[in-house]
Amino acid sequence: MTTVLDILDKGTAYLEKRGIDEARRNMQMLVAHQLGCTRMDLYLRFDQPIEETDLGPLREALRKRGEGVPVQHLLGTVFFRRHEFRTDARALIPRPETEELAEWLAGNVALPDGASILDMGTGSGCLGLSLAADFPRARVTLADVSAEALALARENSEANGFGGVEFVESDLFSALPGEQRFDLIAANLPYVPEGEEVAAEVRHDPALALFGGADGLDVIRRFIPEAASRLNPGGWLALEIGAGQSAEVESLLIREGLKDVLTLNDLSGIPRFPIARRA
Known about the structure:
Layout lengths: L3 H14 L5 H13 L3 H4 L9 H15 L4 H5 L1 E4 L2 E4 L9 H13 L7 E5 L5 H9 L4 E6 L2 H13 L6 E4 L12 E6 L19 H4 L7 H12 L1 E9 L6 H10 L3 E7 L5 E7 L2
Parallel strand pairs: 3-4, 3-6, 4-5, 6-7
Antiparallel strand pairs: 1-2, 7-9, 8-9
Helix pairs in contact: 1-2, 2-4, 6-7
């Protein structure tokens, strides 16, 4: 008879041998998901036998996790701020760093009623939809070059009950009306340099959403000039970038005449979030 504790211990050892970080937590998440309970519930169910109907799917999920398939893809969802979002190979897995950016914007940006918000490169929609929740009187547009990513964002919008959000398939601003202006533009665009080694889990994300040319900034260099011209007076521009890119990105923002340019650190101390405003 295999109990909850047995499968937790054996699965954790299996993942540790395969170099999976936070192996115990990963195994708890897989078991809780399969049994339809929370991770905390598992502590009260250590002696509960696991039926073969649950063991089969757990073994398959454990095998995939050991091969580097992200635990978020195996679970199918991830929590981001106050909402649960679907996640799969169509878009980047929502990252804690992006959640930090969403929290900073919610706590530090004041927008007028009826403000316009754009989430460029929306992916799963987690950033733009969180901003829609934080600024309920704003008009929110989610844009992405990937039709598959936009489909996932729509699913997340519907699953969380967001109404009135606009979705636009667009290579940066190419499909957005030329006269359209925004009070806040947020963007998590590709910024990983081509050829840079990434973790096994990250390799399951779409390459289109990851890599940004030789130094990682090709897409951002295209984006910033037009984004600056699309801001209303006093409007905010906020980005997420990689380690070592802040000086170049700040120079690009200053070159476009934006003011109050600074880069906020993430919780690891990495300059991660360039912020600027239009005069």
